[in-house]
């Protein structure tokens, strides 16, 4: 019986599984309490970051430790819009405290919601494109790129903390309650926001899926396997890397906007070094190179964090540190890779090795 | 004129601290291609080693000997960090050679655990280390410019460490074996060099120098479990800017970042200065993508 089932084309089963997952997500307001729903909404926003990060790291092999910045920029964009509506034409409170008399020019366009949404996605994407242009084009890659992204995080957080009058400093931008006149804390609005997040997550998933299954995605994986060979074939890896990095940053920005709607605050500590590297851990745990794995990793790890870190905050840090080590050493493909690993072991035991176990030496 | 000299001195002082931290990285990252994010925590361990030595002297030695604790603390910090580095290499790092990004993540995890461990042992608040009295005060030049002895001492310490490293790498048998293994592992192994032992010792030396850096940092301010995280990214930038594989690149990288940081912060604000330095580094890498001093190689990864 099982054999027959397994012989069916894999795609149909996967599709059915995705459909079940999507329905389960959409129906979550029916069976989750408001508190849990809000948490899940936050984790789903994180899952969008994980998808983007997987695109650049899992598929293209470029590790970015700067996604906290892109996430934060999206978050700040949304927070600026909400703050301006909350202040109702007057100066936001923290600007008054810092002695500003007029709204800075770059705050003005954020009176428009459409502009805010566009900026929340395009500003991170553009920043990523610029950084990518100046690094990938010069073949600055691998660890050098990673270190540069980490430096980007440091300077952005320093800048946001330092320019208190314009960004709210360490406290960030908070103190707003209404979106389009609806209170963002009320259960009804929260449910709607949750559903919007689910919709965006599915859209992001489909977008990434289409990207990695397309010719574009094949080139990305080829870059991961051997960048120079791709170059010799006649592709320009830099273009592909830039686009992938930029899309990934845009997704992080989108996630940041959703995050602010769920949590009601954005501050430099949410875009710092530690959150940025935690994002990488989600993808590493779930499984780099599989989109579902990355998204699930974000949701599972954050659920675990919210359970454990409240009861045992000290043990959680130990646990997270150990998780980094274990995943890297024992599970390089993450939890999703565990299944393939097990499959491979079984096949080995059965005596006929799969073709994937044959490895040709590089070059 | 006075201001200029003072800024210049501050710049050199910042550079010397950056250099001391980056020297360890120049070995682990530059030679071994391991991104050791726990380097900052090794610095923290070195700093706490100095703190422990200070407490030991306070409790068990006559008061007159207290001033000399620092002289003992430097080798002690080196030894502690060396041993922990050796342990780290044996247990974890050796499985990660040739996978730099993975080594980054795994050592980040190690760093988290070490920080938490320090928090458990020494408590979360910062602790102060009393500097020896012979480092109080400063040298006065040109009438009213005061150069603190502590800063001068750190600059001298860096010079000594740098010279020792240069001699070790370029003039000793062990250093020759080290260079051989880093340049051509298979060939070195064929010639009878134990590459395992060389790897372990090299990593441990890099860690030990981090310990010395931590010891020096106790002169500047109070120390805490997250001491290393303030410096680690800057130190990596020094190595990236300087180019990997040569010590002289690291020296110029540190001078470049330290001096420009001080100058920009003097001209603008602290936060804007950092941004400007970052932009300068990215701009510089446009011109020389592999850093100031690059090892010539014809190999294509």
UniProtKB/TrEMBL annotation, chain A:
Q: Name the UniProt key words of this record, in alphabetical order.
A: Cell membrane, Membrane, Transmembrane, Transmembrane helix
State whether keyword Transmembrane applies.
Answer: yes
The protein's matches in InterPro entries, at most eight in alphabetical order, are given as: ABC_transp_permease, ABC_transptr_urea_perm_UrtC, LivM-like
Q: How does it sit in the membrane?
A: Multi-pass membrane protein
Where does it live in the cell? Cell membrane
Q: What is its main location?
A: membrane
Instruction: Show the stretches that span the lipid bilayer.
Output: 12-32, 39-59, 65-84, 113-136, 143-162, 192-212, 243-267, 279-303, 315-339
CDD domains, alphabetized: TM_PBP1_LivM_like
> What does the entry list under GO cellular component?
plasma membrane
Keyword Flavoprotein in the entry? The reply is no
Q: Recorded GO terms, molecular function?
A: branched-chain amino acid transmembrane transporter activity
Q: Which PANTHER family match?
A: HIGH-AFFINITY BRANCHED-CHAIN AMINO ACID TRANSPORT SYSTEM PERMEASE, SLR1201 PROTEIN
The name on file for this protein is Urea transport system permease protein
Automatic annotation (TrEMBL), chain B:
Q: Which GO terms describe its cellular component?
A: plasma membrane
User: Is Transmembrane included in the keywords of this UniProt record?
Assistant: yes
Instruction: Give the keywords, sorted.
Output: Amino-acid transport, Cell membrane, Membrane, Transmembrane, Transmembrane helix, Transport
According to the record, the segments passing through the membrane are 12-35, 66-88, 100-118, 152-169, 201-223, 235-259, 266-287
Q: What is this protein called?
A: Urea transport system permease protein
Where does this one sit in the cell?
A: Cell membrane
Q: Name one GO biological process term.
A: amino acid transport
The family classification in the record reads: Belongs to the binding-protein-dependent transport system permease family. LivHM subfamily.
**CDD domains in UniProt:** TM_PBP1_LivH_like
Q: Sorted alphabetically, which InterPro entries does this protein's record hold?
A: ABC_transp_permease (IPR001851), ABC_UrtB_bac (IPR017779), BCAA_transport_permease (IPR052157)
Recorded GO terms, molecular function? Answer: transmembrane transporter activity
How the protein sits in the membrane? Multi-pass membrane protein
Say which species the protein is native to: Paenibacillus phyllosphaerae
Could you tell me which Pfam families the record lists for this protein?
Answer: BPD_transp_2
